[in-house]
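Researcher: Re-running this chain for the archive, since the previous output was lost when a drive failed. Same request as before.
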Amino acid sequence: MLNLECRLKLTDVVRDDNIAESLCEEDRQAIASAVYSAWELDESSRLPWEERMANALKLATQVAETKTFPWPNCSNVKFPLITIAALQFHARAYQALLPGPDVVKCKVLSLIHISEPTRPY
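Model: Regenerated structure tokens:
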């Protein structure tokens, strides 16, 4: 939890255009440090995902690279099998995934009549 030095009144904060001007320098530094460390944590946690997405994008766009295995400048043929399969899936599944104007469908299963509770006299 972030502990700040200054205490602000809610009425003052609502009227201010810039809340940072109401804070003391130590509080601004503490907030900046907390935000930066959270950003670094987020950045490092999604690094494996970003690497996978970069590799997938290279595969989908069929980027031709110079190969060195099994020998330098060997053949590097790329067939668009994954791209064709993804495009065909999208074309066939589009109507089921995006149903158009019928986003929500409902059906009444039964009507339950709730009567007022009886009052003892």
